[in-house]
Amino acid sequence: MDASSTDRRPLVALAGNPNTGKTTLFNRLTGLRQKVGNYAGVTVERVAGECALPGGTKVQLLDVPGAYSLAARSREEELALQCVAGVAGEPRPDAIVLVLDATQLSRNLYLALQVLELGTPVVVALNMADQLAKRGERVDVAALERELGARVVLVSALHDRDFTSLLECVAEALAGDGGPKGEGRQDGNDARSPRRALPRELEADLAQVARCVPESWSLGSNARARAFAEWALLSVEERDELEGVPPDLRARALATRQAAAQGGRSTDDELIAARYAWIDERMSGFVVRASPSRTASERIDAVLLHPLLGFGLFLGLMVVVFQALFAWSDPLIGLVEGAMGHVGDAARSILPAGLFADFVVEGVVAGVGSVVVVLPQILLLFFFIGLMEDTGYMARVAALMDRVMRAMGLSGRAFVPMLSGYACAVPAILATRTMERRRDRLLTMLVVPLMTCSARLPVYTLLIGALWPPVVVAGFVPVQGLLMAAMYLFSTLVALVAAAVLSRTLFRGQGAPLILELPAYRAPHWPSVLGMMGQRASSFLREAGGVILACTIALWFLLSFPKDEAAQARHAQTVVAAATLPEAEQASAVEAADARLASDSLASSWGGRFGHAIEPLIEPLGFDWKIGVGLVGAFAAREVFVSTMGVVYGIGGGVDEESDTLREAIKAEAHADGRPVYTPLVGLSLMVFFALACQCMSTLAAIKRETRSWGWPVFLFVYMTALAWVASFVVHQGGLLLGL
Q1: Which of 229, 266, 479, 659 has the most neighbouring CB atoms within 10 Å?
Q2: How many angstroms separate the CA atoms of 27 and 63, rounded?
Q3: What is the set of domains in the chain, with CATH numbers?
Q4: HSE-up of 121 (CA within 13 Å, CB side)?
Q5: For 113-124, how does the pLDDT look when each residue is reduced to its tens digit (9 = 90+)?
Q6: Torsion over CA of 86, 89, 91 and 96, rounded to 10 degrees?
Q7: What angle do CA 303, 306, 311 make, to 5 degrees?
Q8: Is the whole model's pTM more than 0.85, yes or no?
Q9: Burial readout 622-650 (b: 16 or more C-beta within 10 A, e: otherwise)
Q10: Which of these, 141, 135, 112, lies nearest to 522 by C-alpha position?
Q11: Is 554 exposed, middle or buried (0-12, 13-18, 19+ CB in 10 A)?
C-alpha cells in the first residue's frame, strides 16, 4: 500500500503495545471493510480498513504492528516507527489513535511519550478500563489528558458497540483541535518534560545526532528531530536488520554510543531512565488505587508461571493441541480426501480416457487436494493460537519457555511452532508469525521441518512392520514401538542441535533478550479469533497453494513421461488375452496387467530415469534405484513414498503402509546376486534419511511464502538433504563395519 492507495482520504494510524486490544478495536471500527497485505520485503501483515467518522467523513485506518517502544533492532520493529512517523516511504498519518491498556498503564506510557513527541495529532484510546474497575481502581482521565496534552477516551474494544466519542475526538484532531495542551511534554527545555532528568552530556549527544536527521524526517521541527535522534541512539547497532537509515545518521549514532561507552556511560540507560522517572512520578496521580491485594491475574500467574507446576500444565495443554492437530483433524482431512477422490472419479467418468484425463486427475485434482488437505490442521492450529493470544496466555508461554529455548539459540515463542511441527510443518511455519523478530522467525522456520511430522509416520510404519518382527524386549517393551519412539526422539534432538549450530553461525550475534509484558487475563474475542483463522487460511491458499499446485503438476509430468510404448503394447496384448479367461479370473488378470504397466511406465519415465541416475549417490546409503524413484515421488508429500513403492513393485498405487502385499514385496526384493535389498540396517538408514531430508514441497512453498524469497527454501533443502545423506551414510556404513 502506498500513499495513492488511501484515495486521498485522511490516514489514521492505530498504534500501541502488543496485547492492548489494538487489533480488536481495529476490527470493531472497520467491520469487514479491510484489506490485508504485507509490508514490502517482510512477512508482517499490514491491515488497512475504512472507517466513517461522525458527519460522514471517511478515513483510512492502518493497523500498525504492535511495539513496546519506537526503538527498533529488527526490520519488523522498525515498521512501527515508519508507520507512525511517516518516513522511509510510508505515508505520514494525519492523526494517530494510540491504544493503551489501562491495566498496564505505566508500561504503555513509555511508547505514548515517544509517539507524542513526533508532533502528529494523537487521540489516546484507553482500553480495558472496565478490567481496571474490577480491581477497584480507576484512571483520572483529566490528569492524564493534562500531562500528555492529548484527548483521552475510555473504551472497551471487546464489549463496546458505540465508539462515537472516540471517533469524534479523531475528527477534532484531524480538524486541528488537539484538545488539552500538555505541560511541557513536547518541549525538552520545560521543567516538566520527560527529558528534564537527562545528563548534560546526553543533551549534547542528542543535539549532535539530531543534526544528522534528514529534513524530510524532521519537517523543520526541533522536537521531532530530537525524537528521531533518540530513536537512533536506542536502535542503531553495528549489526542490525534496519533498512533506510541515512548513512550520516547511522555513523553519528554509532560514534556517539561508542564515545559514551568509553566514558563509562550508557545512552540507553540514561534515555530509558529519564522516561520511566517521569512516568513513575505521575502514576499515583493517573491511577487511583484500591487496596494493594493481589489481582486475579497475579494469583493465576503464581500457578501458570511456576517453574514446575506451570510447565506441567503447559505440557498438558500442548498435548491437547497436538492431539487436535494429529488426531482430531483426521475426520476433516478424511472428508477433504474423500471429496477430492469423488472429484477425480467424476472427472474420469466425464473425460475420455487418455493423457488429458490423467493430467486433470493425477496432476490438477491431486495438486488441489494436496493444498486443501492441510487446511484443517492450519485452521485448528490458529484457532488455538488465537485463543492463547486473546486470553493473554501466549505471553506466559513465551516467558515460561524462554530460558529453555534460549539455551538453543531460540526464542521462547518458538516452542509452539516447533511442537506443532510434530503434526505438520506447514501450519507450524505459519505459526512463527507470532514472533516479532525476523531473526527468530527464520531460525525457527529452518529447524521446524526436522520435527517428525505425521507424513513421516506411514513410511516408518511400512518399514518397521516389514523389517522388524513384532517381538518384545525386557519382557514388555515392543521393539516396533521402541523404534517409533526412537525416531521421534532422534528428530527432536537433531532439531535442537541444528538450532544451536545455526544460532552460533548463520545467525550469530543477532539475538536479543525476550522483552514482553504479561497482560491481564481476559475472555477471547471470538470474531477476532475466527477472523484471524480465515485470514491465515486465505493467505496460505493464495500464495503457498499456487506453488504446491505447480510442483504437483511438475512431479506428475516427471513420473508420467515419456510413455513406454512397448509396455503399453504388452499391456494391450495381456488385456486381450484376459478376455479369453473365465469371467471370474478376468478382473484380477486386468488388475495385475494395469499394475505391471504402471510399474514399467514409472521405470521408464523421467522420474524413473532420475532414480537410476542418482543410484551411485544413494548406493552408499544402502538404497537402489527403486528407492530413488520412491524418494522422487515422496517430494510431493512424504507419505506418497508408500504408494510410489506400490507402483514400483507392480502392486498398484492404492496400497497403504499396512499392506501385507507391499511388505512382503519389500522383504522379497533382492539384488542380482541374491542379496536382499532391504535389511534392518537399510531400513534404519532409510528412516534416518526421511527423518532429516526435506522431502516436502509444501514446506518449501510455505517458507518461500513467509520469507518472500527463494533463497531460504533452497538453503533449507540443501542443508537438510546434505544432513540426511551424511547421517544415513554414517548409519549404513557404520553398521556394515560393525557387521550388522
Answers
A1: 229
A2: 9
A3: 3-175 (3.40.50.300)
A4: 19
A5: 888 888 889 999
A6: -30
A7: 100
A8: no
A9: bbbbbbbbbbbbbbbbbbbbbbbbbbbbb
A10: 135
A11: middle
